[in-house]
Amino acid sequence: MDKKQLEIMACPECHGKLNYAKDSRELICEKCKLAFPVRDDIPVMLIEEARKL
Description:
5 strands, 32% strand, N-terminal domain of TfIIb, 5-stranded antiparallel β-sheet, single chain
């Protein structure tokens, strides 16, 4: 995941900062406790696709 791309992305639920979990290929929102999948290097930023942590 490109660092510049990660800097401009935000959680669609709370608009908070996201962290990239390289091992699980997910974008993590600590505030909402949601993990958004990254498929074929494309973040899937749909709340209904997110996994609860």
